[in-house]
Amino acid sequence: MTTEIKKVTKSDLNSVVLRSNLFQGSWNFERMQALGFMYSISPVIKRLYPDPNSQERKDAIKRHLEFFNTQPFVAAPVLGVTIAMEEERANGKPIDDAAINGIKVGLMGPLAGVGDPIYWGTARPVFAALGAGLALSGSILGPLLFFVLFNLVRLATRYYGVTYGYKKGLDVVQDMSGGLLQKLTEGASILGLFIMGALVQKWTSINVPLVVSTIQKQDGTTEITTVQSILDSLMPGLLPLLFTFACMWLLRNRVNALWIIVGFFVIGIFGAWTGILA
Where would you find the membrane-spanning parts of this chain (predicted)? Predict the structure, then answer.
């Protein structure tokens, strides 16, 4: 008598990736992303426990309705690891509920700390800035570029995350503890700061047209010296740089970004009204 080996197929993994796009669809304050996690992994549960009335399937569904919450994109490797563990359990390996839930809980915290700065703090503002650059010139490609780039990164993360987690299994934990997450976070932060620094120089423009002196030359021409021309002779782009540092200082001191934007509107309107800014 031979025992049939239960194996998750490529189609099952693709279904998990597709369903993970609705990971946040049933978010709630009690168990947060638990329903989304269960909905995403359900093709695998059906594959490993084909009898809909079996106690194993009921236990698996109940197991994955426990509390879960992380950055939705980086939940993909957690899904992959969980699939690998469920597959081993379905084939007789002694893996209990606590082990599976322990891995999920142990990974969701560190991954959330990596996912938020990479996707919300780096990828989204950088892609939005690139798209806004085209939109300012009136091109429809601006919003399309942002939509395409961000979703390419999002979908690639989900696909390769699930595949990577499934192939690596519990070895993912060793990768995480080896400083991989810290390197990813630092790399994304450096890349984001580099690109945003270049965009600040390109987009931020402050002009102070206050006249300091007017000199009538012998050839009949007039030389007008403004505050802006003096600042530019000292360092081109000095005011935008100081403006950026002021924003960073306010944000680090936990000043609400909305109040900062409102403050800049007020300064801009007042400066234009008084003639200090142009």
Answer: 126-150, 257-277
Q: What angle do CA 109, 115, 119 make, to 5 degrees?
A: 160
CA angle 20, 124, 35 (to 5 degrees): 20
Same domain (yes/no): 59, 185: yes
Q: Are residues 193 and 262 in the same domain?
A: no
> Buried (b) or exposed (e) across 52-76, using 16+ Cβ within 10 A?
eeeeebeebeebbeeebbbbbbbbb
Residue 210 in contact with residue 278, Cβ under 8 Å?
Answer: no
Number of domains present in the structure of the chain: 2
* Structure-block tokens of residue 257: 């970004």
| % of the chain exceeding 70 in pLDDT | 95
The beta strand positions in 151-253, using DSSP E, are 211-216, 222-226
Instruction: Show Cβ contacts of residue 153 under 8 Å, excluding neighbours closer than 6 positions.
Output: 119, 123, 127
At residue 224, φ and ψ (nearest 5 deg) are: -105, 125
Which of 202, 231, 250 is the C-terminal boundary of a domain? 202
Contact of 22 with 56, CB cutoff 8 Å = no
pLDDT tens figures, 166-207: 998 877 776 666 667 677 777 777 777 777 777 777 777 888
- What local confidence, expressed as pLDDT, does residue 178 receive? 62
One domain for residues 193 and 260: no
Instruction: Say yes or no: 173 and 43 in one domain.
Output: yes
**Predicted confidence (pLDDT) per residue in 19-42, tens digit:** 999 998 888 888 899 999 999 999
The size of the chain, in residues, is 278
176 and 60 share one domain: yes
Same domain, 17 and 118: yes
What the block records as the tokens of 197 is 């620094």
